Amino acid sequence: MADMHVAAVHAHAAPSGFFRRYIFSLDHKVIGIQYWLLGLLAVLIGMALSLLVRFHLVWPDAQIPLLHLLSPTGGKGDQMQPEYYLSLLTLHGTLMIFFVLTTVPQSGFGNFALPIQIGAEDMAFPRLNMLSFWTTFVGMVVLLSTFFISDGPPLAGWTAYPPLSAIGPATGPGEGLGQTLWIVSIAIFCVGSLLGSLNFIATTLDLRARGLSLMRLPLTCWAWFITAVLMLLSFAVLFAAGVLLLLDRVGGTSFFIPAGLVVSDQLVNHAGGSPLLWQHLFWFFGHPEVYVAILPGMGITSHIISTFSRKPIFGYKAMIYAMCSIGFLGFMVWGHHMFVSGMSPYSGFAFSVLTMAIAVPSAIKTFNWIGTMIGGKLRLVTPMLFAIGFVSLFVTGGLSGIFLGQPALDLTLHDSYFVIAHFHMVMGVAAIFGMFAGTYFWFPKATGRMMNETLGKVHFWLTFVGAYGIFMPMHYLGLEGHPRRYSTLTGVEFLNTPHLMHLHEFMTVSAFITAAAQLLFLYNLAWSWFKGPEAGENPWEATTLEWTVPSPPPFDNFAGRHAVVYRYPYEFSVPGAEKDYIMQDAVEEAKKKK
Amino acid sequence: MQSEVLTPAKTEEVLDEGSGHGGPPGGGDFGGGDSRPWSVPARAYRTGMWMALVGITMLFAAFTSAMVVRQGISNDWAHTTLPRVLWLNTAILLASSATLELSKRVLATNDFRRFTAWLDVTAVLGLAFIAGQLLAWKELRGRGVYLATNPSSSFFYLLTAAHGVHLVGGITALFYLVTRARVGASRQIGTLLPIDGGRPVGASLEGQVVPGLRTPVEVTAIYWHFMDGLWIYILILMMTRL
Ligand code: HEM
Ligand SMILES: [Cu+2]
């Protein structure tokens, strides 16, 4: 390898105790996998909740066996109460957005791969890293604990709009202790994310191997870096909002509660606050947050598409600048979630123009992905399929965003199924596809074994078609005026038509099929972990540093060696080179050229 | 565990750009490099600290904007007259920044005794500030001004508490540094306690400070001075009537 003539090479052994090695580990690879597993648990629970919700929408009167065990009141007689529907919806959204979409693409994959890709032994602050993970873990425990308190989980949605979320038990089941625990959980989550993000930033800026300039950084690292910056700037604001909301609930303050509010025939003893203040604070966090969820997936997708097209990524620098401008503009568009809040039409216009502006870098990225594939020697392995699926979903979801970004159209589309379709496509499923792509891609590195390709491909096609089956019809429902967050709409004449009900049925059936397809993934994962064929150092013939070390990598990644980087990360099909890829730390060719 | 400072690669050839593992070695999280024997450049700690301060800035920026909006939209805002003791507290906090600077200076001259003494003084001043803030709360309560009395008082308690919590973090860091330095010094002969990535810390036989403490002290000082500035900002914010 490149630095053969390093005088002393010391390999460092992992700590030997089980707890230090696997539980309270300081090793970024272990922590990354811990985050990944935490996300897996969250996604499985979140998915189960969504299936309950979908089932109820279609068969509102059907009994769901054992539901009363989940909640004696909410599932009285195994029948889902309307409020309980909202609670399940709230927990679904909260688990998915925070503990899956924020946790896995950034903290999971980022922790696992970033230090190796930049040639470092670990993150800059390993203890802080461990602390971030366990903080996040506690946050999730607190959130899930709401299932086991008599109050039940909160029902104010993942956006927790006041006054519903601010007043207490009077506003419904789950709005007592449940809502308070929700805020505490999210505040804890914020702390974990903030600690994690500063670690990512310091690691990327200060721990890069020699020769690895910023303009030689893999796009994955760029994505994790920009995401970390977004997290740092946005989660602190959510934390502040959470503190204010908590004080309104338990401290008697009135930040968000207006005067003269009557709840259950009782005048609320608060005055002067504004629910809109919460919306501003929340969406100032919330819009950057959606990019926190998607940017790592963009990085992974760029990386994978280049690798399996056997071509340098089209427009490497453009990709970086696009991510930077997405991150930057992302802080100026939060108002597009509030078009109908009564804001001045001038503000609405400004937010709309800025929102449209984000479509430009998004389109640049999309064209560059396509441009990379055009003329490439495509290798359609499972990670590549999921990366292509990511592009498809991102485009589909992004297009509906352009409709929502028009204040005039948003008047009718707001809070309808159209919005659900939009963000599930562009954020939910696209980011999940990014995670699948990353999992299939780095699994060999993490475990030393390959995942099964056939199962992977079947998994991809079922999930891809299934996801479109679930979410495409929602656009139509939204256009028909179907509002979101209602458990049943049987009383509403114009929505209770057979063709809309059939659409609902279709979506629910798609959801169950798609969920079942995930069993294939789980089976593949478990089987391959123990029985998969040996992966070797570089099964994908990729170029970045993590593929220069054994699979799984040694405890200190480079076994005491100091990686030195001589090249740009995507040197595929270089004319005159003996193979169709050149590793980032390959020195010979560089010398030859001179 | 014994530390092994790794020799950086000596491959100078094609290294046109890039950062590399330069700078003095730091080590894992200041916590003693028991299982992390490789080095982390000191500037990573500075970057980490500055990023933490960026996060804290955003936190207080959010509180500020909430305060401005809350004040603007309502007609129930009654300005809270600030307790006098706040001026004393401010003086104490400013003094603590000065003593911390002194301690940093002495560190450069390797005078272990005076170095730890100034750190002690800083920490005590920090505690005095917190006590003074509690007095301010007491005075307000005596006036019948509580958290929920008025939006203005809500923000008073909120901002002072949020700042106080962060300052307590700083005090903890100071005590940690002093303790590590002292313990290191008392065990100096033979076994120096490793801190800062396995590099021994404390005083050498000649009563000189061993260099491993520099980065932690410097980073703590950045934080401490920032808390100082943040307090001045909060004070001005609470004095202003918009
Ligand atoms: C072309 C770019 C995009 C545009 C123009 C756009 C526009 C919008 C608008 C205007 C809304 C508000 C709709 C309403 O509530 O009435 C919205 C909602 C949303 N968007 Fe986008 N969006 C874009 C891309 C994205 C991306 C990339 C993500 C995530 C990765 C995303 C995630 C979301 C989410 C989660 C919501 C709904 C939040 C909620 O109310 O629960 N959007 N989008
Ligand atoms: Cu948005």
What does this molecule look like?
The complex is a heterodimer of chains A (594) and B (242). Chain A has 594 residues and is mostly helical. In chain A, 61% of the residues lie in helices and 1% in strands. The longest helix of chain B has 36 residues, at 151-186. In chain B, strands 1-2 form a two-stranded antiparallel ribbon. Chain B has a single domain (2-6, 39-241), classed as Four Helix Bundle (Hemerythrin (Met), subunit A) (Up-down Bundle), CATH 1.20.120. Chain B has 242 residues and is mainly alpha-helical. Classes of the chains: A mainly alpha (594), B mainly alpha (242). Chains A and B meet through helix 5, helix 6, helix 7 and helix 8 of A and helix 1 and helix 4 of B. The site of protoporphyrin IX containing FE has 23 residues of chain A, from helix 8, helix 10, helix 11, helix 12 and helix 13.
Give the biggest sheet of chain A.
Answer: 2 strands, antiparallel
Biggest β-sheet: strands ordered side by side in the sheet of chain B: 1-2
Strand content of chain A: under 5%
Q: Report the CATH architecture of the largest domain in chain A.
A: Up-down Bundle
Count of folded domains of chain B: 1
- End-to-end Cα distance of chain A, whole Å, is 19 Å
Keywords:
heterodimer; A: 594 residues; mainly alpha; Cytochrome C Oxidase, Chain A; 2 domains; 16 helices; 1% strand; globular; disordered N terminus; B: 242 residues; Four Helix Bundle (Hemerythrin (Met), subunit A); two-stranded antiparallel sheet; 5 helices; 2 strands; binds protoporphyrin IX containing FE; binds copper (II) ion
